[in-house]
Amino acid sequence: MIKEQEEKRADSSETRDGTVKLRNPHIELFDQDILYHIALGSKSHDLVEMFGDVKFVCMGGTPKRMETSAHYIMEEIGYKIPTGTTLMDISQHSYRYSIYKVGPVISVSHGIGSSSIGVLLHEMIKLMYHAKAEDPIFFRIGTCGGLGLEPGTVVISDDAMNGLGNHYYSLPILGKVLKRPVKLDKKLVRELKALVAQDDPYDTTTGTTMCAEDFYEGQGRIDGAFCDYTEVEKQEYLKSLVTQGVKNIEMESVPFSALTHQAGIKAAIVCVTILNRLKGDQIAVPKEVITQYQQRLQILATRYIKKYLQTKDSSCLLKGSFAVESP
Ligand SMILES: O=P(O)(O)O[C@@H]1C[C@H](O)[C@@H](CO)O1
Ligand SMILES: O=c1cc[nH]c(=O)[nH]1
């Protein structure tokens, strides 16, 4: 089944002209496609005008991280918004996800877990399709638990697997389980790794990321409301993950890498470890430290974005953002 899907995907990729192709024949037949959870629509908004210039979609769990990230990118790429205005959350009326846009970069929050990021991915992929954006690259920048890594280490995922060790995203559809293969762009992983600076005061590594369906029992924690295993069993499990090449555990890598691959979109996952799971479960690190750790993700993603923009005619790329008057 996975092989069949791969062949189908490869066939439709052959006709690619850079714009995102939807593998859904129904959408074209709709009068308007309502992107409900991001409060946008293909008729109610001029999506080509608003998002046609997008080259990067950066996703991360929280609205605050993605707002901060948008400001950081704005500063770094030298993007200007009119004095007295501030970046606006484009999907504020959805009360679900937050979207910021700075020139060719979208910064969007995805919430926690597979179903939350899954819904957003459907709508972001459709947004890129309606906008006729060319070759957009998706990044997930997130936090994670590390396995044997110093907290604050940056992990670039070169593979992802679920809690059963499967390298596919399974979803019950019409009463049957559909499995979509996980695939991350190896070249993009190498390019990101090449952007690590000698003097970065923290380590950056690559490896497999385990995607759990839950933060507590699903990640083998003993600090949830329930726990039916011992600390020894937990340690055995975590060590078995290490032997499989797993460097970190989070909650979105499998749907993210499977659905972007299914859409023919180049994508990468960069996460920062906020604790070493071999040493404990509780997140005791202060919020300010976590904020500093998260900056490491913005730094790496922005290095890539800047490098990309330098190789293109950035004057035509630095077209639009959405800003409102500062309060
Ligand atoms: O991007 P974030 O920091 O939200 O990623 C991880 C995985 C879950 O979404 C969440 C659990 O605390 O953090
Ligand atoms: O341990 C952790 C830390 C952050 N996010 C996770 O999903 N797990």
From TrEMBL:
Binding-site residues for substrate, renumbered to this chain: 219, 221
NCBIfam families documented for this protein:
euk_UDPppase (TIGR01719)
Superkingdom field: Eukaryota
Q: Where is the Nucleoside phosphorylase domain?
A: 55-306
Q: Which Pfam families match?
A: PNP_UDP_1 (PF01048)
Any GO BP:
uridine catabolic process
Which terms does the record give in the GO molecular function aspect?
uridine phosphorylase activity
Family recorded in the similarity comment? Belongs to the PNP/UDP phosphorylase family.
Please give the name of this protein: Nucleoside phosphorylase domain-containing protein
Q: Name one GO cellular component term.
A: cytosol
Q: Which residues bind phosphate?
A: 96, 140-143
